[in-house]
Amino acid sequence: VGVSSTAVAALIGNIVIAFLMIPDCTAFREHDKGFKLCVTSRPGMKDLSHQNLTSVPPNLSNNTQYLDISYNFIQALKGAEFSGLSQLCFLKATHCGLQEISPTVFTHTPALKVLNISNNDLPFIPDISLKQLRVLDLANNVYTSYQLPASFQNLTKLELLSLGSTAALSINYSDFDPLMNVPLQHLALGAGIQWQKYDSGSLAKIKSLKKLSLFASFCGTFGMFENLLVDLNETQAKSLRCITLLPDKCNVSDNPFMNLRRMPFMQNLTIENTWINSSFMEGFLKNVWLSSLYELSFVNITYYEDTPDGFVFHNINHTISLSSVIFNGVNHYQYKYPTINMSFEAFSGLTYLKFSGTGMNILPCRVMTVLPSLETLDLSDNLLSESGFWWTPCSHSTVFPKLRKLSLSKNRFSSLSYISRETHQMNTLESLDLSFNSIHLDGDCSWPAQLTELLLGNNNLGNSVFTYLSSDFKRIDLSKTGITAISQEDLSRFPKLTHLQLSSNSIQVIPIDLTVPALVSLHIDQNAITSISKESLAGIPRLQELKAGSNPFVCSCDSYWLIITFNKSLLLDWPFDYACNSPPSFAGFSLSEYKPSELSCKMWLQAAVAVPVVLVIFAAMGLAFHKCDGAWYTKMLWVWIWMKRRGKKRANILNNVSFSYHAFISYSHQDSDWVDSQLVPCLEGTGFSLCVHERDFVPGELIIDNIINCVESSYKTLFVLSKHFVQSEWCNYELFFAQHRAIGVQQDSLVFILLEPIPIDSFPKKYLRLRSLLRQQTYLEWPKDEKKQQDFWASLKSMLHMADKSIVLKDVALAISDTVSLITDQE
Ligand SMILES: *[C@@H]1O[C@H](CO)[C@@H](O)[C@H](O)[C@H]1NC(C)=O
Ligand SMILES: *[C@@H]1O[C@H](CO)[C@@H](O)[C@H](O)[C@H]1NC(C)=O
Ligand SMILES: *[C@@H]1O[C@H](CO)[C@@H](O)[C@H](O)[C@H]1NC(C)=O
Ligand SMILES: *[C@@H]1O[C@H](CO)[C@@H](O)[C@H](O)[C@H]1NC(C)=O
Ligand SMILES: *[C@@H]1O[C@H](CO)[C@@H](O)[C@H](O)[C@H]1NC(C)=O
Ligand SMILES: *[C@@H]1O[C@H](CO)[C@@H](O)[C@H](O)[C@H]1NC(C)=O
Ligand SMILES: *[C@@H]1O[C@H](CO)[C@@H](O)[C@H](O)[C@H]1NC(C)=O
Ligand SMILES: *[C@@H]1O[C@H](CO)[C@@H](O)[C@H](O)[C@H]1NC(C)=O
């Protein structure tokens, strides 16, 4: 089928407006990949670019993972500034006028995975031997040779290397020797200039090379390029990107891509930023036709028709492997429609066609007719409108028998109802992209049942858009469509909905009654949402992917669930895009570092109500406490309760009670010298058995338990009174216990020794009981005079002594069990 030149002319469409397209963003994605490889937390990121720095600041934090010092005036990197940066993983120092890098820099940064020192004035390729390095960008410097230092053989993880210098004019045979055993996949080479020499075999040294981005021009020297292709064939490279391959002024008469016919591994070829004449195109296409290429791309090309009959191509009897063709940005040098004289029949196997950034304003129907296998058609970024795409003689059901995906993004479409009706002609269409148009809601829509994906982002639609969509939709993109609120009623229309994008709208809340049973992915980033609660996601049980960053989150307990409980692996943009917006003291604070405490948040409501009340009560009680030694009595009360519980447990045991000790000695730590050196030796030396705390306490038991045990199994309790004793807390318990036993049993089980003269009235009021006991009972005073000490010991021994131990024991035991049963009865 010969297609007439006028019909084909429409393929290119409006040539007056020449569109330049945005260049392919692979470089950015590489950067992105490196970023993800490295950065795990916001504090690990340090961006010092555009700061007019003349050196690297010396006081960088040791946890720095990412450091960007690009666009400064740093001529040298010195080792010292990098000491301590052992976690540094990503270093970017482009556009700094860098001339020198001290080798010690890299001894400080063993974890470096991405190093970008492109766009500087490095006169040599620096020595680098970083074992973890994956990405190394040395492009746009001023070194005079591509000879790599031997240290590069240590880059055992290097995947991407970028080299380029306008001062390096040749590629020599041994330049890449150090990369022989490096697993380098992707090499970007050159600075966009013509080389003087390419030694055949140079690139073949990089055995693992799969992709080459060639920034070099050839004109009249295509032998070099052909040799380079042979080398790429040897490494079995799959992908070649040629940037500025042909200089603008070059009469290309050779056939530089001849070798393409014998390169069975090459799959993708991209020709970028180049002037292409129709004469060149004819020869080039013939080579492509006979090659095994799978995908062919032209990116930002300027087309010039230098053949008198336009582009003429005679079919070759050969099956074409090509299945994907991309035109992304075509400038027409001449102000006329290009003439294309060829049969497109050979392309009937094509499944993917992108024709973007060409100024096309009318669909070339007859060209499309001969592409019956087409599954994806991307006509984004053109000048198409309803009437240019659906023009009368063009029957779309026959034109696109297999088409599944159609992109009409960035065109001039406007009527949603019209488009919805017309899509019924495309029997197999599943996905339609209408983003970045001027779509408005102009009447009822009826969508074909097989259409399940509709992208409407960046059109001004508003909240009512949901009523114009089909219940068969599984994927809906409504990013930046002016939506201010969503409701359960809106979304209940879509029982099959799995993917919903609502980014860049003004939604303030996710309704808590939202029920979207099939939804797997939800994007609500860049809205006005202040918090996401458990309840609002409860109706989305299948959710696997949530993007909710860049919202004005409130750092309070409202965000507790999202921050603490919610599974972060479902959050696509966590943690970098999540920051507090309020309260003002937290503005800009990363949500991942805001750690509300569980107690404060879970008790939040109760606390809100209870706090003022409790405060008043506490204030009143505190006052009373302070006046009446309340704290001390509280402690005592606790001990009392403790005893009662114990009493119950031990009631039976107590029936068989027997004393193991003559006395339990209660004293303060500060008096332990006297107790250890005088009291204990003296009494134990004459046959008394003593329970001395620390020595006789059973390890592992509670101290209070130990004290009670000791008191209970001792005939008497001996208190060594001093100022320290009064201050000692545990002594209080001992005294308290003994007091109670004394009340219930017999007061004379208490023996007091005054280690230093203390007037009884000087005891604090809380020792009221002690004061009265001391008044009632005799107590022994420790004399400083050595002679009197003999008398002291004698009196003490007689107080502890007993005529018949067993009689006393029995009495005491009975008394204790009485007390205990009394306590037990009370409970
Ligand atoms: C290095 O930085 C430059 C300048 O920002 C950028 O264009 C380039 O893509 C970066 N290289 C890599 C490998 O990311
Ligand atoms: C850097 O210097 C320029 C020119 O002196 C000035 O305009 C700019 O504000 C400075 N930038 C910073 C971050 O100091
Ligand atoms: C294209 O053709 C024009 C006119 O013949 C010529 O001046 C130009 O150098 C050619 N460019 C290339 C890249 O072939
Ligand atoms: C380009 O080269 C061919 C063959 O060498 C020659 O016939 C043709 O006139 C040249 N075109 C221009 C514009 O120089
Ligand atoms: C590429 O390699 C294959 C074998 O691997 C060989 O048959 C073919 O001739 C080579 N092509 C070129 C251009 O050297
Ligand atoms: C497109 O290619 C031309 C060279 O043909 C170049 O000068 C221009 O910068 C390129 N545009 C973009 C956006 O890369
Ligand atoms: C193409 O070549 C095949 C054999 O390779 C032959 O059978 C067929 O007739 C040829 N077709 C045309 C149009 O020449
Ligand atoms: C979080 O989600 C991921 C992905 O769905 C899953 O593999 C992981 O087990 C989940 N973690 C927890 C703690 O639930």
UniProtKB/TrEMBL annotation:
Record GO biological process: inflammatory response; innate immune response; toll-like receptor signaling pathway
Coiled coil spans: none
Protein family (similarity comment): Belongs to the Toll-like receptor family.
Cellular component, GO, one term: plasma membrane
Organism, as annotated: Amphilophus citrinellus
Matches recorded under PANTHER family: TOLL-LIKE RECEPTOR (PTHR24365), TOLL-LIKE RECEPTOR 1 (PTHR24365:SF539)
Record-given protein name: Toll-like receptor
Broad class of where this protein is predominantly found: membrane
GO molecular function: transmembrane signaling receptor activity
Cell compartments where the protein resides: Membrane
Transmembrane stretches, start-end: 603-625
Stored Pfam families: LRRCT, TIR
InterPro entries: Cys-rich_flank_reg_C, Leu-rich_rpt, Leu-rich_rpt_typical-subtyp, LRR_dom_sf, TIR_dom, Toll-like_receptor, Toll_tir_struct_dom_sf
Membrane-topology descriptor: Single-pass type I membrane protein
Disulphide connectivity of cysteines: 365-394
Entry keywords, A to Z: Disulfide bond, Glycoprotein, Immunity, Inflammatory response, Innate immunity, Leucine-rich repeat, Membrane, Receptor, Repeat, Signal, Transmembrane, Transmembrane helix
PROSITE patterns in the cross-refs: LRR, TIR
TIR domain: residues covered: 659-800
